[in-house]
Amino acid sequence: MRFSFVFSEMGIAIRRNLSMVISVILVTFISLTFVGTAGLLQQQIGSMKTYWYDKAQVAIYLCTETSPAEVCPQGEASQDVQDTVTERLKSATVAEYIDKYYFENHQQAYETFQTEFKDNSVAKYVKPEQLNETFWVNLKDPNQAPIIIESFNGLSGVEEVKDQRTYLDQIFSILNIASLAALSIAALMLFSAVLLISTTIRLSAVMRRREIGIMRLVGASNFYIQLPFILEGVVAGVIGSLLAGGAILGIVQIFVQGFLATQLPFTSFVGIPDALALLPLLVLAGGGLAAFAAGSAIRRYLRV
Amino acid sequence: MISISSVSKQYKGAPRAALENVSLEIDKGEFVFLVGASGSGKSSLMRMILREDLPTSGSIHVLGENLIGIPNRRVPHFRRKLGVVFQDFRLLPNKTAAQNVAFSLEVIGKSRGFIAEAVPDVLRLVGLEEKANNLPSELSGGEQQRIALARAIVNKPAILLADEPTGNLDPATSIDIMALLERINLSGTTIVMATHDRGIVDRGQKRVVELSQGKIVRDARGASYGVGE
After folding, report:
1. CA–CA distance from A68 to each of A62, A84, A97, A151, B53 (Å)?
2. Which ipTM value was assigned to this complex?
C-alpha cells in the first residue's frame, strides 16, 4: 500500500474533474448547512422548553363581573370561591403535585398588567375589576398540569383553568415546523448530492479509463483501483461539510448571539459550543455520504 | 503452465461460437505463435488466458490456477504473474516512458526503492534508457512498443501475452521487437504471441498454433505461417 501514490492519483483526478468536484462541494455545503440549522433549531427548542416549561404555571382564573354568563352565572367570584379553591389546593390529593402557589387579587393583576402593557393604549381602558383574580400554581412536574386542570375545571366561580404551556406549545410547534422544513430541504439536497457525487465519480472514472484499464491488466487490486475515486468523493464531501460547519458557526455568532441574543436578553440561545459540537457530526455525515456514493458508483462502473 | 481443455465460447447474439472445443497445452519457456484470420478466435483465447473472460464450457488452468473457479478477488494477484502487450501499445500519454513503467509497479503496491531499481533496469533491457523522460508522443511506434514491453516484463512475469505486438510497426522495427521478445523468452518467460505477420512467423520457426473459425486446425513445432492464408 503506497499512500503517497494513492493521494497523488486522487489529486490528478480532482484537478481533471475540478468543475464537477466544486459542484459537489457546493451542494454538500448547502445541504449540510440546512441539516446543521435544523439540528441547532431542535437544540434551541429543547433549551427553550426546559427554560420556559419550568417557569410555566397553571392559572386558575376566578370569575369577574364581566365574565361570560354561561361559565359564570353568579358573576364576580365570592370569598367562598377563594376559600374553596385554597382548601382544594391544600388537600392531600392535589397538594402532592404542587410546588407552590399564590393568589393575585384585582389590584395586583392590574399592576402587573400596567407594567406589562405600559406602552400599549389598552392599558388606559382596563379597570382592575375586569382582570381576573387568579391562583398561580407552580407544579413540581409541569407535565402533570392536566391533574390540576381536571380538579378545578367546572368548579363554580372558576372561569377557566389554563396551563400556560399551551401558549408555549404553539411557539414550539412553529419552530418545530421550521426545523422540519429545513430537514426536508436538507434531505432533498442530500439526495441530489449523492446523485451528483456518483455522476462525478463515474465521469472521473471515464476520464481515467486508460489508467483503470492498465491497472486491471497489471493486476492492481480492486481496492487500490477504487480508493483514489472514493477519496476524491470524500475530499469533496469533507470540504463541503467544513464549509457548512463554518456557515453554522457564522450564523450562530452573527445572527443568534450578535442579533437575537441582544434583542431578547432573557432567552437562552444556542451558542458557539453547540455549533462546535455539531461540526464533527456534519463532517462525518458529509464524508460518510460521499464515501458511500462514490464507492457504489465506482463499483458499479468497474463491474461492467 | 497453460492448460486449456475442451474450451468453447459462445458470445450472446453471435451466430457461431468464438471458440469451439479448443484444447491446448503450453509448457514453461515455450514461444508460441497464435495465427489465424481476424475473428478466428485468437483474441478470445488470449482474453481467457488473462481471465478477462470465462469460457462457456471447458476448463483453463494457468500457472496452477483454475481460472474457472478462481474467486474474483484473487484475479488481480493472478494477473501479476502475467505480462501483456497490445497492438496499440496502451501507454498513458501524460506520463513519461519511465513513469509509464513505474505506474504498473506503483498500482500493485511495490516500494519506491524497488521501483527506483527495477525501472532503469528494464529500460536498459529494452534499450531505451536515454528516452526514459520522454513522453510517448515523442517516441516512435517501435520505441512505444518497447516501453509497453518494458512495462509488461518489469514485474518478471512467468508468461507474456502479446496480441499483435508488431501490427502497427514497419517490418524493420518488427524485427527489432521480435529480437527483444526472443531475448525475453530465452530468460525463461513463456510467450504466447497472436500475429498476422507471415514474415515474422516464418523467420521464427517456432511452434505455430493456427485457429480457424474458433477451432485449432494446426499445431506444429518449428513451423511456418502456413499455406491457407
Report:
1. 12, 21, 30, 21, 90
2. 0.87
